[in-house]
Design brief:
Layout (H helix, E strand, L loop, with lengths): L4 E2 L10 H11 L10 H20 L7 E4 L2 H8 L7 E5 L4 H4 L9 E4 L9 H8 L5 E4 L13 H10 L3 E5 L11 H4 L3 E5 L10 E5 L26 H39 L4 E2 L10 E5 L5 H10 L2 E2 L15 H5 L4 H4 L3 E4 L6 H32 L1
Parallel strand pairs: 1-11, 3-4, 3-5, 5-6, 6-7
Antiparallel strand pairs: 2-8, 7-8, 9-10, 10-12
Bound molecules: 4'-deoxy-4'-aminopyridoxal-5'-phosphate (PMP).
Amino acid sequence: MAERAYFDWNAAAPLREPARAAMVAALGLTGNASSVHGEGRAARRLIEDARAQVASLVGADAKDVTFTSGATEANMLALHTSLGDRLFVSAVEHPSVRSGGRFPAELVEELPVDGDGVVDLHALRSAIARAERPLTSVMLANNETGVIQSIAKIANIVHAANGLLHVDAVQGPGRLDCDIKTLGADLLSISAHKLGGPQGVGALIRRGDIHIGEPLIRGGGQERGLRAGTENVAAIAGFGAACAAAAATWRSDAIRMAVLRDRLEAGIKAALPQAVIFAPGAPRLPNTTLFAVPGFKAETTIIAFDLNGIAVSSGSACSSGKVQASHVLAAMGVESELARGALRVSLGWSTSDADVENLLNALTKVSSSLLKRHENSRLNSGLAA
Ligand code: PMP
């Protein structure tokens, strides 16, 4: 029996070794980072070292990094009415952005995307012109399709309209350049577990002069008053170490992943010429393929793959378990029957040639039985009709 091959890196990446080591070391400490004694100062040092590592990954100042419980919380912290009079979010955002953060629903407007899931810049320009101080939130790369948005162009449009730009960059680190200045973002959210840190920690990074008027969690004044509560020192230390590792290797990792991803897509098309790979015309992350085979149901296919030692996903992990047609594919105008069959394959720094071979072998194996099943159900429904 072949070893299992994991292809769900956009949902969660494995913990990097330096992150694990930093966490184990931090768990051996006792102090509260707010205490003035030596033990407290040792905990504080770990947090501040990690803050510098996170800041360095995104080209920001350490003082502008606020640790949170993840990107969902970072998005909630950023999307507040103190930063704009209306909120504009793209139709393909993660639910934590699409839900409008701390804006009342009537002040949130959705921005359309084209058939590849790319934000329509003309629609953006005319929509934000209707607000005095528009706050716009567009993701760097989509977690389902891997489509990369033109953030620098969007930033220019937003700034010309007297607005601010928040970027959910969760899927970027380890795969793309995430420098906050190059992107032109005013606020950036990232999450540790997508880049080899632990689950349950993330950060909001601000441009230095941005002032968020209201914290999400009030209390003891930690994180410069922006996020109260005793810090999760071990998770933060692991996050920092993962950022340093990602910063050191992402360029070579990205090149290697793109080669494997291209081989994977060629293999899918060779085995099943009727397969549809989504967003073929847009720039995409080097590690992500979203595809569907007409007649295949996502749940059945995922289970068939799993039984063959292959972990793939139906789209975003947040909505798997209940596989529904994705809002991302709906916004791209993909027909709902095809969208319901969408399978996401996402790779990472340790994905090997053999993993991709295993996936393609499993695809050949599972597709013959799934095609048979599809043909039978078509015949049965034909007979019943
Ligand atoms: N944004 C995007 C694009 C994501 O992929 C995710 C994780 N699925 C989140 C936000 C939420 O991140 P977290 O799990 O850290 O709250």
